[in-house]
């Protein structure tokens, strides 16, 4: 991995979006309501699959710390990294209120992989890949970070007409679940593309899980056979 790759895989425009909203990260009725709504689903699924209690976990693109705290509450030793200074400040402030011990650091996944390869039992990278210029480089970094036999969890948005209608037109313009401009359709990632990058990084695809939203009940749920819009991918590193 080149030093240039380590330095440059950051989109300052994407960082600025979340910097501007950082103070509202822990408000469950704010622009981050969707993250609050899906956080128990994804944390419970990760814990069910990986049993995080007593394990070292790296949360890549941790933002204000929603998933980091949820995994810490389940007994994990968590390192959360992000390139946004303001979200990390919010994460550290909320950590004082929660009393949890989480190691928050401002750095890229590539930099952490150079510093601490094969150091984590579990690596999570949720709702982050569609916000970086080179998602394959982040996947390679996650593969370097996890120990042999460990697990890596990704989540992102599929790229197809349905995902455009649901995730951008529906979520950002009609239902106003997210601020306009949160996502760029061209950065959405098909599961086939993700699987290719994962295998190139030396990981195995263990499971693909969808996540759907019901606008009538206003609830999210995990859906194993519907990965048309939001999906999660569980990967393993061979022993």
Q: Which terms summarize this structure?
A:
single chain, 239 residues, alpha/beta, Rossmann fold, eight-stranded mixed sheet, 41% helix, globular
Can I get a quick summary?
The protein has about 240 residues and is α/β, with parallel strands linked by helices. About 40% of the residues lie in helices and about 25% in strands.
Q: If you consult CATH, what is the topology?
A: Rossmann fold
Largest beta sheet, briefly? 8 strands, mixed
Order of helices and strands: HHHEHEHEHEHEHHEEE
Give me the count of strands. Answer: 8
Q: Measured on Cα atoms, how large is the radius of gyration? A: 16 Å
Q: Considering DSSP H and I runs of 4 or more, what fraction of the residues is helical?
A: 40-55%
Instruction: For the largest sheet, list the strands in their spatial order.
Output: 3-2-1-4-5-8-6-7
Q: In the residues, how many domains can be counted?
A: 1
User: Regions with pLDDT < 50 over 5+ consecutive residues?
Assistant: 1-6
Strand content: 15-25%
Number of helices: 9
Average pLDDT for all residues: 92
Terminal residue distance: 22 Å
CATH architecture designation? 3-Layer(aba) Sandwich
Under CATH, the homologous superfamily reads Vaccinia Virus protein VP39
CATH top level class name: Alpha Beta
Helix and strand composition category: alpha/beta
Task: Give a structural overview.
Keywords: Methyltransferase, S-adenosyl-L-methionine, Transferase, Ubiquinone, Ubiquinone biosynthesis. It comes from Marinospirillum alkaliphilum DSM 21637. One of its GO terms (molecular function) is polyprenyldihydroxybenzoate methyltransferase activity. S-adenosyl-L-methionine binds at residues 42, 61, 82, 126. The chain is an alpha/beta fold and 239 residues long. The chain has one domain (39-237): Rossmann fold. It has nine helices and eight strands. It has helices at 3-8, 12-21, 33-50, 66-73, 85-98, 109-115, 135-145, 161-174, 191-200; strands at residues 56-60, 77-82, 102-106, 120-126, 146-157, 204-214, 219-223, 230-236. Strands 3-2-1-4-5-8-6-7 form an eight-stranded mixed sheet. Helix 7 (135-145) crosses helix 9. The longest helix has 18 residues, at 33-50. Mean pLDDT is 92; it is low at 1-6.
């Amino acid at each position: 991995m080149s030093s240039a790759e380590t330095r440059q895989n950051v989109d300052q425009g994407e960082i600025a979006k979340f910097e501007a909203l950082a103070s509202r990260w822990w408000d469950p009725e704010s622009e981050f309501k969707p993250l609050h709504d899906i956080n128990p689903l994804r944390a419970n699924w990760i814990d069910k699959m990986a049993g995080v209690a007593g394990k070292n976990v790296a949360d890549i693109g941790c933002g204000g710390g929603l998933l980091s705290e949820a995994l810490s509450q389940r007994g994990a030793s968590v390192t959360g990294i992000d390139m946004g200074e303001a979200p990390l400040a919010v994460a550290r402030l909320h950590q004082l209120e929660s009393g949890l011990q989480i190691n928050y650091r401002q750095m890229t996944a590539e930099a952490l992989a150079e510093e601490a390869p094969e150091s984590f039992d579990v690596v999570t990278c949720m709702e982050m890949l569609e916000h970086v210029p080179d998602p394959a480089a982040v996947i390679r970094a996650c593969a370097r970070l996890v120990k042999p036999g460990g697990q890596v969890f990704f989540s992102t948005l599929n790229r197809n007409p349905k995902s455009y209608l649901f995730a951008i037109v529906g979520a950002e313009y009609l239902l106003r679940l997210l601020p306009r401009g949160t996502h760029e359709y061209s950065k959405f990632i098909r599961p086939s593309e993700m699987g290719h990058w994962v295998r190139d990084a030396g990981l195995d695809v263990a499971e693909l899980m969808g996540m759907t939203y019901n606008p009538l009940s206003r609830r999210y749920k995990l859906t194993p056979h519907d990965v048309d819009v939001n999906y999660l991918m569980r990967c393993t590193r061979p022993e």
